[in-house]
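Deliverable D2.4 — example input (structure tokens):
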């Protein structure tokens, strides 16, 4: 076990002090580099667009719904209530997060839209996937 006398003798050497200073500087450089990485990540949030969000969500819903038994071919329309909201710190220069747009309604046209069982499965899938009430969802038969 190291005693206080041993520690003092280690610190009295010039190399040990240089190593401690170098380790401290390396730590500061790593902290600086990590803040640069997080800034570039927050800049990517500003490139978010409502249309991209709508398109990605519609595509995801189409893929998911078409895999449900009885639903068949699917076409989805998604309406959005508002745009992206940014939450900033008090100085308005640092964005802390973005709030996604609110979904106003979803229309699903599918082959199984006239089948009550398939329509119920589609309702459940859409309401749970988007965390919205069933009153915002319309399931209908896809035109042949």
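Example output (designed residues):
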């Amino acid at each position: 076990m190291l005693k206080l006398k041993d520690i003092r003798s280690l610190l009295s050497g010039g190399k040990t002090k240089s190593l401690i200073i170098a380790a401290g500087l390396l730590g500061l450089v790593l902290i600086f580099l990590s803040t640069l990485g997080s800034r570039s990540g927050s800049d990517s949030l500003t490139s978010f667009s409502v249309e991209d969000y709508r398109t990605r969500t519609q595509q995801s819903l189409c893929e998911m719904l078409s895999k449900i038994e009885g639903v068949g071919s699917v076409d989805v329309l998604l309406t959005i209530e508002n745009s992206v909201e940014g939450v900033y710190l008090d100085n308005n220069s640092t964005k802390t997060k973005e709030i996604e747009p609110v979904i106003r309604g979803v229309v699903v046209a599918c082959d199984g839209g006239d089948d009550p069982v398939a329509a119920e499965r589609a309702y459940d899938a859409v309401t749970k996937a988007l965390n919205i009430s069933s009153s915002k969802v319309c399931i209908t038969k896809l035109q042949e």
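Residues 113 and 119 are 5 Å apart (CA to CA).
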